[in-house]
Design goal:
Layout: E1 3-5, H1 8-19, H2 30-43, H3 45-56, H4 69-78, H5 81-99, E2 106-109, E3 114-122, E4 125-129, H6 138-151, E5 155-160, H7 170-179, E6 183-186, H8 189-198, E7 208-210, H9 215-224, E8 229-230, E9 238-243, H10 249-260, E10 267-272, H11 275-289, H12 295-305, E11 306-310, H13 314-324, E12 328-332, H14 336-340, E13 348-351, H15 357-362, E14 388-396, H16 398-402, H17 405-414, H18 418-425
Parallel strand pairs: 1-11, 4-5, 4-7, 5-6, 7-8, 9-10, 9-12, 10-11, 12-13
Antiparallel strand pairs: 2-3, 3-14
Organism: Clostridium scindens (strain ATCC 35704 / DSM 5676 / VPI 13733 / 19)
Binding site for substrate: 237, 259, 262, 328, 361, 415, 420
Protein name: Histidinol dehydrogenase
Length: 429
């Protein structure tokens, strides 16, 4: 891995380099995505079936687009029983964590006759996109469906591309069934996002779409925002490790590579105050690359967006981490909790040398759908909050309104909204 001394220029160049990976910079794909969405909106099922034949080489129709109970049963027969048990264990942790995020309606009454409150209502129907093909991640199925289920969403509609035989990967189906999907449809790509956003004869329109996907899926989600809500526009995976001389270089190297193997645009960055550790981590990375099956992807990822930065102080390291606002942030220092208190921007924070990033991906319980490309400065991980909406409650008695009605009328008149003022005034004529 390249080793650089951290300074103002290095930091600025790094930030500009990382931002190039944003889906917002792939405008050349937008025209094609817009054409797919327009056709799905216009032709509905017919367009979905045609695009599935074109892109997935699968013959799908109204008769077989929805996954049946027999197909789910077959998936359980094909899936590894040990993996099924691991999925169930992980689900318990994910559910327990998200249960703590549950919000409730509240109402506040006062003796003067006023009652204010907030009514919390789950969304009625959400769509979960699950990638297929090379990217088969049952863990993402769990992370996207479980918070919706905990929130109380009635209908959780999952879409995922089929293989050329019209089948869905068994592990994906098992994960969806265990997590609580209410319906699963065999469609992927931008056409799946269009089907969820606009509705077709076979696939119902949803209120919100969540889940990761390729650039076409990301741009489609961006385009349909407003017709429906979305979680976020996901970018490539990324990890940043803050470490000092106390860190284990083998652990740090292994954790950096755990994200670099995702794809060639993934980012893996170490910021350390120890020049000795920097060299040791680089050596360990080289050693791992000789062993790991996905070393080709990892090497390209590190060549593109892999960095070891040597900081003059821990304060500089922390400032850099806050500027980058990484999706995953690991802290492997002598006093990791002190460093953690100074972190403002990160999707998920892993504290200590035994809290490696894959723990969060699969098992610990917090959601692994996290903000990327610096959006951790203003976005949060996927949560129960993403699947609810809130309505304000206002109730005043005549006596309560009478005490303040002239103030409201004067305020409305100041804005020259006389009908507003009249709406209050008529009640006291």
């Amino acid at each position: 891995m390249r080793i650089q001394r951290l300074d103002a220029d290095t930091r600025q160049n790094l930030l500009e380099d990382l931002l190039k990976r944003s889906p917002n910079n792939y405008g050349e794909y937008e025209k094609g995505v817009a054409e797919i969405l327009a056709r799905v909106k216009r032709e509905k099922d017919e367009a979905v079936f045609d695009y599935t034949r074109k892109f997935d080489q699968a013959v799908i129709s109204a008769a077989n687009i929805e996954v049946t109970e027999d197909e789910i049963k077959e998936a359980y027969e094909l899936a590894d029983p040990a993996l099924v048990e691991i999925i169930r264990k992980a689900l318990k942790n994910i559910e327990a964590y998200h249960e703590k995020q549950r919000q409730y309606s509240w109402f506040d009454s006062k003796p003067d006759g006023t009652m204010l409150g907030q009514k919390v209502t789950p969304l009625k129907r959400v769509g979960v996109y699950v990638p297929g093909g090379k990217a088969v991640y049952p863990s993402s199925v769990l992370m996207n469906i479980m918070p919706a289920k905990v929130a109380g969403v009635e209908e959780i509609i999952m879409v995922t591309p089929p293989d050329k035989d019209g089948k869905v990967t068994p592990n994906t189906l098992v994960a969806a069934h265990e997590a609580g999907a209410t319906a699963i449809y065999k469609v992927g790509g931008a056409q799946a996002i269009g089907a969820l956003a606009y509705g077709t004869q076979s696939i119902p329109k949803v209120d919100k779409i969540v889940g990761p996907g390729n650039i076409y899926v990301a741009l489609a989600k961006k385009a349909v925002y407003g017709h429906v809500s979305i979680d976020a526009i996901a970018g490539p995976s990324e990890i940043l490790v803050i470490a000092d001389e106390s860190a284990n270089p083998r652990y740090v190297a292994a954790d950096l590579l755990s994200q670099a193997e995702h794809d060639e645009l993934a980012s893996a960055i170490l910021v350390t105050t120890s020049e000795e550790l920097a060299g040791q981590v680089s050596d360990q990375v080289d050693a791992f690359l000789k062993e790991l099956p996905r070393s080709g992807i990892i090497s390209k990822s590190l060549d593109n967006y892999g960095y070891i930065l040597i900081a003059d102080s821990m304060e500089d390291a922390i400032e850099t981490a806050n500027e980058i606002a990484s999706e995953h942030l690991e802290i492997q220092t002598k006093d990791p909790y002190d460093v953690m208190t100074k972190i403002r921007n990160a999707g998920a924070i892993f504290i200590g040398e035994y809290s490696s990033e894959p723990l969060g991906d699969y098992f610990a319980g917090p959601n692994h759908v996290l903000p990327t490309n610096g959006t951790a400065k203003f976005f949060s991980p996927l949560s129960v909050d993403d699947f609810i909406k809130k309505s304000s409650i206002i109730s005043y008695s005549r006596n309560a309104l009478e005490a303040i009605h002239e103030d409201i009328e004067d305020f409305a008149k100041a804005e020259q909204l006389t009908a507003h003022a009249n709406s209050i005034k008529v009640r006291f004529e």
